[in-house]
Amino acid sequence: MAEQQAGPPGFSVVPGAAVHRSLAGRRAEIIDLVEDAYRLHGEGRTVNPPSYFLRFPDRPTARIIALPASVGGGVGADGEAGGVDGIKWISSFPGNLGLGIPRASALLLLNDPRTGYPYACLEGSIISAVRTAASAASAARRLAEQRGTPRRVGFFGTGLIARYVHDYLSELGWQLDEFGVHDLSAEYAASFAERVLGPTGRPVRVHQDAESLVRSSDLIVFATTAAAPHVTDPSWFDHNPLVLHVSLRDLGTDIVLRSANVVDDVEHVLKADTSVHLAEQETGDRDFLDATLYDVLTGKFTAPADRPVVFSPFGLGVLDLAVGAHVHRLATAAGDTVPVDGFFHELDRHQSAATS
Ligand SMILES: NC(=O)c1ccc[n+]([C@@H]2O[C@H](COP(=O)([O-])OP(=O)(O)OC[C@H]3O[C@@H](n4cnc5c(N)ncnc54)[C@H](O)[C@@H]3O)[C@@H](O)[C@H]2O)c1
Question: What pLDDT, on the 0 to 100 scale, is given for residue 1?
Fold first, then answer.
């Protein structure tokens, strides 16, 4: 939360480089912070309305999403008691890859819950990738504790999110035998295999076909940009892998319906033609959803080992706020923000700032 204001409300910008510096070496801490945010969410101490999708008739693959949210007090690895309100505004333009820049770009605005005044604007794409990866790592950690540690990890889709998920999974300290990768683009798969997984020293197999990657992995990370299911044969999952379905729309409903399904938030994830949303439309109910991550964290749900387990996280704005507020605190303490003096100018209701 913003520091106690004596004078006019302050405002600062936190550029991507400062966000990156603030988060360096803190993956374990961020996984715990994200779990704290899920607990608060599960306890009803957050506000997280539906995301708002801005789409364009002339650019059907592009979208910009607004994720407003409010996190109650108690989140923060440093024990900070205050809460935070705010919004993430995140663009997804898959065509950016052809321009040599990442698909997603984002801003995160933090508002002071006492006054509503915005007090910080942070580069949001790193925070978004980090909270997504920390959420995936949390689910993987807790579900693997129940079902056994994977030895073979496969990445289906090899973009920026896959890289962050890899970084956060590596924090779990698993002893892995090998990695697998598969991507529509052989070039991206080869680059990921060499530059992201190569330094691990573990064997890396590039799979030309999707089936081979799925059958060869105990844990599969889906991080593609597929808009509709393209993996539809349930028999590929006969070995009952753990699936982190981060990209949400890859799996056919037959696979969803024969798996144990864990989600982040039921109302959120049953929207926007996610695979679980399609399964709800097909069956007319949501009985196939077994648990939320909160249920896993609190021990209410134990994942079976004799079925595939699919984690489908819609991605909650409360996670962006929890991580973003923490980054802001760290960057402020390190003198690594860019203060914008006088950002709020008209502060006397009866006297114009111009004449005072
Ligand atoms: N659930 C969440 O909270 C959350 C948060 C952030 C991002 N995401 C999702 O993660 C996904 C990946 O994001 P990114 O920034 O890494 O994107 P990216 O564009 O950097 O990478 C996506 C990769 O997937 C590959 N791909 C696309 N369709 C494929 C298919 N059918 N089979 C195999 N490979 C395919 C592309 O070639 C590309 O290399 C996006 O769908 C995004 O919406 C989810």
Answer: 46
Q: What is the pLDDT of residue 285?
A: 98
Pocket lining: 115 vs ligand 1, CB cutoff 6 Å: no
Q: Residue 214: CB within 6 Å of ligand 1?
A: no
CA dist 329 and 83 (Å) reads 12
End-to-end CA distance of the chain: 30
**What is the pTM for the complete model shown?**
0.95
Q: What is the model's pLDDT at position 73?
A: 66
Q: Is 225 in the pocket of ligand 1 (CB under 6 A)?
A: yes
> 263 - beta bridge partners?
292, 312
Q: What pLDDT is recorded for position 6? A: 56
Please give the structure tokens belonging to residue 283. Answer: 């069956």
Q: Which helix (DSSP H) or strand (DSSP E) does residue 97 occupy?
A: helix 96-99
Rounded alpha-carbon distances, angstroms, from residue 220 to 85, 312, 343 = 34, 12, 46
Q: How remote is the CA of residue 102 from the centroid of ligand 1, in Å?
A: 11
Helices 27-42 and 317-333 cross at an angle (nearest 10°) of 130
pLDDT < 50 stretches in the chain? 1-3, 5, 76-80
| Gap from CA of 346 to ligand 1 centroid (Å) | 43
- Residue extent(s) of CATH 3.40.50.720 domains in the chain: 136-312
Determine the distance separating the centroid of ligand 1 and the alpha carbon of 92, expressed in angstroms.
Answer: 10
Give the residue range(s) of CATH 3.30.1780.10 domains in the chain: 12-127+317-355
> Mind spelling out the 3-state secondary structure of 160-175?
HHHHHHHHHHHCCCCC
DSSP-derived 3-state class of residue 337: coil
CATH architecture of 12-127+317-355: 2-Layer Sandwich (3.30)
The pLDDT value given to residue 156 = 98
Phi-psi region of 149 (alpha: psi -120 to 50; beta: other; left: phi over 0): beta
Whether ligand 1 lies within 6 angstroms of the CB of 274 is answered as no
- 324 pocket-lining for ligand 1 (C-beta < 6 Å): no
CATH number of the structural domain 136-312? 3.40.50.720
pLDDT recorded at residue 7: 66
Residue 76, pLDDT score: 47
